[in-house]
Amino acid sequence: MGIQSSAPDQANWLESLYQQYLLNPDSVSSDWQVYFNSLNAVSFSPSVTACDRRQVDVLRLINAYRFLGVRLAQLDPLQRYPLPNIPELDPAYYGLTAADMAMQFDTGSLVASDRASLAEILEILQRTYCGSLGVEYMYISDIVRKRWLQQRLEGCLATPHLDTATQQTILEDLTTAETLERFLHTRYVGQKRFSLEGAETLIPMLQQLISGAAVHGVEEIVLGMAHRGRINVLVNVLGKPLMQIFDSHHQDAAALSGDVKYHQGFSTDVITPNGNVHLALTFNPSHLEIVHPVVRGSVRARQQRRGDVLGNEVMPVIIHGDAAFSGQGVVMESLNMSETRGYDTGGAVHIVINNQIGFTTSDTRDSRSSLYCTDVAKLIEMPVLHVNGDDPEAAILAVQIALDYRREFHKNILIDLVCFRRHGHNEQDEPAVTQPLMYQKINAHLGVRQLYADKLLAAGLAPELPAQLITNYRERLETEERIVAPAVSLYKRSYAAHWDSYRQHDWRSPADTAVSANQLEEFGEKITAVPDGFTLHPRVEKVVVDRRAMAHGEQLVDWGMAENLAYASLLRDGYPIRIAGQDSGRGTFFHRHAVWHDQHRERWDAGEYLPLQHIYPNQPHFIVIDTLLSELAVLAFEYGYASAEPDELVIWEAQFGDFANGAQVVIDQFIASGEAKWGRLCGLTLLLPHGQEGQGPEHSSARLERYLQLCANDNIQVCQPSNAGQMFHLLRRQMLRPYRKPLIVMTPKSLLRAKQANVPLAALTDGGFAALIGETQTLADVRRIVLCSGKVYYDLLAGREQRGINDVALVRIEQLYPFPRVELSALLADYAVGVEVVWVQEEPQNQGAWFAIQHHILACLHLNQTLRYIGRDFSASPAVGYPDVYEAQKQAFIEEVFVA
C-alpha cells in the first residue's frame, strides 16, 4: 500500500477505492482493508500524516452526504417531525473543527473546484443533498451511473434555474390542478373522486415529463396509476372531456357493464412544442399496483411493433401510491423482471404520490418495515429522487433528471413526491378521527398553488395574474370546453394497433386452420434441422429424430410436434409469436423443445438455438421466455402486451395450472372482465396443465371451475383439447379467426406422450378444431351417453374396452365455453328418446365443469332424456394425496359409468 502523489487525481482515486471498500470490503486489497478499517475506527496509522488524515476525513464527509444527506433534506410540506441527528454529517464526527473550515482540501469527485475550503465543501453538500430535493443513489454499483448523477446534482447544487415563462407555466398547471378539484367538490357533491388536493404538483410534473420526453424523441407514453388524482390527470393532462367522465349514460349499457370513473383509461394525441405525443392512460381496477406490469407489457408490445429496441420511442410512466408501492408484492415482482431479456422496456419513470399516510388509518409503524416507502426500488439499484411537493421547481428538476437518466442508461428511475392528502381516503371519509394532528396541519396549509403564487409575486409577477388564471380556467370548466386540445383530428399514428376488424364477430367465425401435407413436411424439416457443430442432448436428439419422422407421416404426431407445427405455420402466415412461462422453452414436461442447448457451449455463447426463428427469411419474430418465478406480474405483463397487439399470438404458460392461483387478480380484473368494463379486447392465451394424475392436490387442478364461473357474454374461451390435432387447430384458430378473446386452455400432462392422444398427419391437413367430438366407434343400441372433457375420456375408453361394453357412447366436450349448444343438441337428437345422459369428470363434484355447464346440457336434452352426475364426491382439496386412494376413486366412478 502506498499513498500516491497529492494531485487531484489522487483524491479521485482514493475516494473511488474507499467507496468500493464501503460497498464490499473484500473487493480491495488486504492492506487497504486494514487502512480503511483504521479510518472507520477513527484511529489512524502512524505512517499517515495529520494532513493526509484530514484530507481522507473530508472525502469521508463528502461520501457521507452522498449516502445520508437525504435524511436532512427538507422534504415534508407539513414539517411534522424534527430532522434526525445524523452524526456522520457533522464534521466533528471526523475530528474536523472550526479551525479546519478555512483550510483548502482536494474535493475529489465532488463537482466543484479541484480544491476548496471545508466551509465551501460543506455548503455545496448541504445545498445539494439537504434541500427540497433529497437523493438516494450511492447503492448503485455502476460507477458511471453514480458519477453521472453526481454531475447532474452537484453541478447545479440540486437547484433549478427556470426562466419566467416556465415559472408562469408551472403556476398555470398548479392552478388547473387545484381549481378542477374545487370545482368538482361543489359541482358533484357527494361523489367519490379521490382528489389530488395536496399533491397538485403532479400536474406540472407530468406536463414537463411529456414535453421533455418529446425532446428526446419519445412518440408514445403509456401511463399507469391508481385512482388518487386520476380524474385530474384525465382532464388536465390527457384532455378527456369532463362530462364524458361524469356522465354514466354515454356508453352503450347493453354492450358494457362499465366501471367507476376513477378506474377509467383514455388515450389521445397531444401537441407539445417538440412534436405530437400519443398518451395512453391504462384502465386500472382498485388493486392499485397491478397496473404496473400491465403498463410495461403494453409498452413492450408497442416497442416491438416499432423495432424500438432501446425504448427511445415508447416510454412507460408509472404513478404509485406510497403505501401500495411498499406494500404490494407485484411491485417487487415487476421491478425484478424489468431488466430481464423478455421484459425490458428501456426503463420506466416512476412517480410515487407520497401522501405520508396510505390508507386513512395507516401508521408508518404498521405500513412498512423500511425507512422510506420507496426502499423496494433499491432491489434493482434504481435511484430515488425525493422531492418536497411544496417546491414545484425542485419537482420539475427531478423530472428533467429522470428523463435524461432514462435516456442515457435505459434504466428505471423514481421520483418520490412527498406531499399530503387534503381529504380522507375519499371525500366522504373523515381522516381527523384517526390522524388529528396531521389534519390540523393540513387544514392550515395554504396549498402549493398559493405558496408558489406568493413566491412569484414576490419576484415581480403581475399581481392580478394568479386570480385571472383561476377565473379563466373555471370559465372553461363551466362551458365544458376540453381542457387539452388534441392533435390534428386527421393525424394518424403510423404504429397504431387496429382492433376494429375484430369486433362484432362470433366464436363460430370460420377459420381455415388446415395446412397442406407439403407445407407440414417443409416445416418439419425446418424445425428439426440441427446447425452444423451443434450438439444436442441425446434425449433431445431422439425427440428431433422422431419429429422428422412425424413430419413425413411415418409416425403419429404427438403434442409437442403439433404445437411446433402450429407455431411454424402461423409464422409462415405472418403472425409473430410470444410464449412466456417458467419453463416454456423446453416445456415443463419435456415436450416442447422450442429452444435447443448445445451440450458443449454455454447458452450465451452461441449455445442456444431456436428452430422456429429459422422458418423462412424475414419472418415475424418468435420469442420464447423462461420467466422468473413470478405469476402475478408476468401474467399482467403478458395481458398488457396482448391488449396492445392484436396480431400476435401471445401465450402465458403456467408450470402447473394451479400456479395461476398466484395471478388471480389479473384473471378476475383484467382477462375475464376487461372487455365488459372497458371495451378492451385481448387475445391472450393461457396454457394451464391440468388433470388428475395421482400426484397429490397441488399440481392436479388448474381450477377449471374458477374460469367457468367467470364466463358470461362470450367474454373468454375455455377449452380442453383431448388430442394433439385439436391443439394444432386450436392455436391456429386463435389467430386466423377475426375474433380476439382470451383463450384458456386446460393442457394435459401425461397425454403429452400418450400414444392414444397422438394423431396422423392427416388430422392437421383436414378439418379444424371441433368444439365437440362425438362417439368414434359404431355401437349397438345406446342406453347411456357419457359427456366428459379432457384426459378422463381415455380412462373411460379403457374402462369400456376392458368390460366389453357396446352400448355406452362417449362424447368429448372440447370447448366448455362458449358452450357448443347447437352441436350438442344436434348430437343428442340422433339418440333414442329417453336415453340417459351423464356428465363424468375426474375433478371433485364441487370443482371442475359440472356446476358451471349443467344448465347448458339441460338446454340441449330432448324428450325424456335425463341428466345426472358421475364422478368424485365433494372435496375441499383438488385431489387426494395418496396414489392408491386416487386409483380406487377412479375405478369406482368408471365402474358406475358402465353398470347396467
UniProtKB/TrEMBL annotation:
Superkingdom to which the source organism belongs: Bacteria
Keywords: Oxidoreductase, Thiamine pyrophosphate
Record-level Gene Ontology MF annotations: oxoglutarate dehydrogenase (succinyl-transferring) activity; thiamine pyrophosphate binding
Cofactor: thiamine diphosphate
Gene Ontology CC annotations of this record: cytosol; oxoglutarate dehydrogenase complex
UniProt family annotation: Belongs to the alpha-ketoglutarate dehydrogenase family.
Protein name (Swiss-Prot/TrEMBL): 2-oxoglutarate dehydrogenase E1 component
Highest classification ranks of the organism: Bacteria, Pseudomonadati, Pseudomonadota, Betaproteobacteria, Nitrosomonadales
